[in-house]
Amino acid sequence: MRALAILMLMFHHSEIYGFSFLGRPLEVLNPYFEAILLGIFFFISGYFAERSFQKNNKGSVSFFFSRLLRIYPPYLLALALYIFVLEISFKKLNLLIYLTGTHFIFAPNYAKPVITIWYIGAIILFYLIFGILLAHLRATKPLVIASVLVFAAAYALHQWTGLLDERFFKYFIVFLAGILFARPSRYPSNWLSDKQALPKLALALLATFIFSLTLDLGSTSPLYIFGVVFFILAWIVLLFALAAKVKVPLLLKFAGIISYASYFAYLLHRPLWKLLADIFSMESGQDLILFRLFPASILVFILSYYLQYGYDRLLAVFRRNG
């Protein structure tokens, strides 16, 4: 699923929406692809946050800093490349906000919004919130009640002050759903299995229709939030069912490699695309889009795989020494 999400991201960011298929512009797919691929990332992050607590029973501080250690140093590398390769400029306060990873709180109303790396600010904030909740509320009912209260407080804060990126509200619920789905005693495991694929397809099609009706609403509209969350979760359930049917060893190995490289690929694909386009003198237009999708993305995945491998080795040495 992570491999699928990162491949969808490459498609989404390549600007291929400028193409048409059977006379219809692909731009119509934009909001659907964005919701699904980012929803997968947030759902999986929530899922494994819960599994981490099940396995290690960490405190909130230990959990947060273990996650921060995995995501923050690579994020700083990406931030440097965004500044020096993509030539994104920051005023001093904006730079401080991005260096501290708090941009999901302050952008876009109080800090400069930056494409793609907003996700890191979101995931840091969610790890902080749910790290505290999971450390102190292990039962499902108190966790859900506390999460609803946090959501309501965040919604009021946003309405009154403009703090928090508007995407907080839909992906907060998706992250929470990932946590709940990781509790098989409460939520049957066949939700994420290959069982009942046809009913899951029907649910996904219904969710797509409902989401399409809410697209013109504001991103903090309760109806929009309901529509997009229903759409994301219905498609995640369906895609997990389809993924569970894949039994081809070579395809699974390929997916594992892509998945392993996905975090660095997410962070670095835009500046790496820019560097590769400059090296091969690719101009704007359809040739550049196709170049990003195929040779450039393949090189991004190869480099990202080895960067992740090297970083894992570095973390292993760090843990061993201290």
Primary descriptors:
322 residues, 12 helices, two-stranded antiparallel sheet, mainly alpha, 1% strand
Can you put this structure into words, describing what you see?
By secondary structure, the chain is an all-alpha fold. It has one domain. 74% of the residues lie in helices and 1% in strands. The protein is built from twelve helices and two strands. The protein has helices at 2-13, 30-56, 60-84, 92-99, 103-106, 118-136, 140-161, 168-181, 197-214, 222-244, 249-279, 286-320, and strands at 20-21, 24-25. A two-stranded antiparallel ribbon has the order 1-2. A hairpin with a 2-residue loop joins strand 1 (20-21) and strand 2 (24-25). Helix 3 (60-84) packs antiparallel against helix 6 (118-136). The longest helix has 35 residues, at 286-320. It is globular. The mean pLDDT is 93.
Write the layout of secondary structure elements.
Layout: H1 2-13, E1 20-21, E2 24-25, H2 30-56, H3 60-84, H4 92-99, H5 103-106, H6 118-136, H7 140-161, H8 168-181, H9 197-214, H10 222-244, H11 249-279, H12 286-320
Antiparallel strand pairs: 1-2
Quick overview:
The protein has 322 residues and is mostly helical.
